[in-house]
Amino acid sequence: MALGAAIALLEEEGPDRLTTRAVARRIGYTAGSLYFVFRNRDDLVLRVNERTLDELRAELDGVLDGQKDSDARLHALGRCYLAFAERHPTRWRLVFEHDVLDVDQVPEAMRRKIDAFFQLIAAEIARRSPSLDPDAIRRAAQSLWGGVHGIAILSITGKLRAGGERPAEALVEDLVATYLRGLDRAR
Amino acid sequence: MALGAAIALLEEEGPDRLTTRAVARRIGYTAGSLYFVFRNRDDLVLRVNERTLDELRAELDGVLDGQKDSDARLHALGRCYLAFAERHPTRWRLVFEHDVLDVDQVPEAMRRKIDAFFQLIAAEIARRSPSLDPDAIRRAAQSLWGGVHGIAILSITGKLRAGGERPAEALVEDLVATYLRGLDRAR
DNA sequence: ACCTGAACACCGTTCAAGT
DNA sequence: ACCTGAACACCGTTCAAGT
Q1: Spelled out in words, what is the top-level CATH class assigned to the domain B40-186?
Q2: Percent over 90 (pLDDT), chain A
Q3: Is nucleic acid strand D under 7 Å from A31's C-beta?
Q4: pLDDT of B84-107, one tens digit each?
Q5: Closest residue, CA to C1' of D14
């Protein structure tokens, strides 16, 4: 499958080398024939990204097994998210940095995957803070997870220069713990 | 100046069209001559990014004038950061998405600018929570600002799909307020 | 039905040669 | 001292033509 070659190329050579021609070469075909399986390069990247999101989702689901306490589950999700980003930096960045040109045409499936992910967080928050109304829960899920995402991206791109070991993990722990503590203190 | 042309090109046509050839064309020179002023395309992007960070910094400094309360200052910084990102999405993204190939060779000036920015946050946190030790302050500045950054990037790339108007601003307010509240509740 | 190969309009980068 | 212009090795994309 062409997708496999694309992913290998991406991890081995980086995003700039993920070209239609290189993918074709790697599977022993000619450049033009790739356009029978992908609409264009955007489409190729999009399919790689869907795969990446599916893998991430599977790992997140996996990490929830066995954890009972909602706060522990949220911490586990945060750690897992960060760990995935650190394990697959190139693929993970591609998900968020790739711009589709004809917006909202193609990425409907992608948006659903991202939404589903926020709902995972929202469900845990609803559980631990049952007094929050649905709007507040949505908001909390988005700002908390936006936060974890930001730490992950700054860490991966080397913009943090933090001290200690596993510095980004400490930041995620800090953000989740402090935010949840703030949630408990009513407004 | 070539830099001006590069920035105009970037805002008008997007990051993919920011090519050495297009910049040269726009200022009436030939492609090769650009290499007398920039080392290569990476260097060109780096210089654009430095300029962007300088502008952002100036706006952040400006927003602090007049605000006395540290919490209000942190909120103002968050809103200003987000507003800048929304006003210059392409340039702002380029700062964080551009990868220099020969790492830590070139971007020393860039790193200092980013560090200086975290220190701006850390100073406000130190002021409002004087009982925190220096490590905790650094950590708080990084996780809180990583968080604001994450919301900004998800918002700009259309991955939030939040309700209400100025949705990202509401998230930044929520994150900052809740995090600071969490900071006040000792561990 | 499936793939090739050539073509077109682009890139980044280098470097002799011109003024 | 400064710039050009051609060259090289790449891109994405299309599409006649081959099997």
Answers
A1: mainly alpha
A2: 84
A3: yes
A4: 999 999 999 999 999 765 555 567
A5: A32
